Amino acid sequence: MRCTVFGTGYLGATHAACMAELGHEVMGVDVDPSKISKLEVGEVPFYEPGLQDMLQRNVDSGRLSFSTSYEEAVGFADLHFIAVGTPQRRGEYAADLTQLLSVVDRLAPLLTEPAVLVGKSTVPVGTAEMIAERARKLAPVGGALEIAWSPEFLREGFAVQDTLTPDRLVIGLASGLSGRAEDLLRKVYQKLIDEEVPIIITDLATAELSKSAANAFLATKISFINAISEICEPAGANVSDLANILGLDPRIGRSFLTSGLGFGGGCLPKDIRALMARAGELGASEALHSLREVDSINMRRRTKMVELARHACGGSVLGARLAVLGAAFKARSDDVRDSPALSVAGQLQLEGAAVSIFDPQAMDNARRVFPTLNYATNSFEACERADAVLVLTEWSEFKDLDPSELATTVRSRVVLDGRQCLEQARWEDAGWRYLAMGLPTINR
Ligand code: UDX
């Protein structure tokens, strides 16, 4: 089969490469010529484990190509995926649909033959209907243009695995259409369907809302355990043991119950805000009041981490040398969008600390956002003469650090585990003072 993918960010580039890996001929399209010129030669412009080799292999085989030309894309296929970003609007909670509308407005007038547009981006419920109407008005082919929504649930760091072995496939369809959209999507996903990936065919609104609801639930789980963490401290309880106890109940499950600095990145924070904004527009704002709390618990984690750093430095970080390990919003990613690690590092610097930071993948992106931090070339260098070491992203290379070796370079053996990712006993045995949110206050 042939298809195009509009938008070659981490969602679009991964989707295009994975569709080619499934055996289809795929063209990725983007308005950014610098992205396209990298992708054309098989180079992924961001860090995503496993994607580079797969993309290169499919470009080399000729199954995967890239272009900035909409005309070329329309001549190439009649199944078009849209995978552009839907970031938070500046100064508002709602999603910014500019990129999505721009794809539709440029693509639709070129459609002279029956075609299917499939949205993959996370959008406010109702967007697909709006896009369908807009596109049909602009397209010479009119009613022979079908719209479907097939949201993507991939996580950064596991994008390839999540696309090729997803938990489920969701296809949202408009009522009263020819069935062509469903046929094409079943064909393009055939290999996954053969592998018994559950497939749910539903209406457009349910498909769109399922993605927002899934992210809202995940965010709620994280903020729930972080709220409990706030109680653990004064109560003398340990949030990590507590999460393990809760997690053994199959109705609850252990995943997304790791307490720490909270969620960041390009999805969960903006998606819960966009969902609240959309609920308000639909006259159902009361239904999602809890998400406001989820958001504020989450943002409070960053403040609490800074408080913990002050506490570790005797009340103020002014003049302290602090090592920050981690800049990406999570491990296995170079993404620093709304990164809790970077926001804490920035606040500590504002309060007068000399911050030396290291991240295995996100250094370039972090430097662009926060050029004034001191960027070290490795963890050891970041920790040189540090008054405290803060681990703020859960990279496995930080978990594997040797506390005895690191002890030889720091000024004080104080480690703040912002992600509950270090083995407390190992650090304490090597003479470190181990601090983390959600531990009994008495241990500090
Ligand atoms: C998320 C959803 O998981 C994915 O399904 C959706 O398609 C896009 O949004 P992603 O943003 O890549 O994916 O990251 P995710 O793995 O969900 O982590 C989000 C944030 O939550 C990270 O900052 C992570 O460190 C944090 N997190 C995660 C916790 O603080 N505790 C946890 O237990 C899990």
Report on this model:
With 444 residues, the chain is an alpha/beta fold. It has two domains: 2-197, 3-Layer(aba) Sandwich (Rossmann fold), CATH 3.40.50.720; 236-443, Rossmann fold (3-Layer(aba) Sandwich). 44% of the residues lie in helices and 14% in strands. The protein is built from 19 helices and 14 strands. Helix 5 runs parallel beside helix 6 (127-138). It starts with a strand and ends in a 9-residue tail after the last strand. The model has no long low-confidence stretch (mean pLDDT 97). The structure holds uridine-5'-diphosphate-xylopyranose. Uridine-5'-diphosphate-xylopyranose is lined by residues 153-156, 215, 218, 222, 256-258, 260, 262-265, 267-268, 329-330. Residues 153-156, 215, 218, 222, 256-258, 260, 262-265, 267-268, 329-330 line the site of uridine-5'-diphosphate-xylopyranose.
Can you describe this structure in just a few lines?
The protein has 444 residues and is α/β, with parallel strands linked by helices. The chain has helices at residues 10-21, 33-40, 51-60, 70-76, 98-107, 127-138, 159-164, 180-188, 190-194, 204-235, 239-247, 268-281, 289-312, 340-350, 363-369, 379-382, 396-399, 403-407, 424-429; strands spanning 2-6, 25-29, 64-67, 79-82, 115-119, 145-149, 169-173, 199-203, 321-325, 354-358, 374-375, 388-391, 414-417, 433-435.
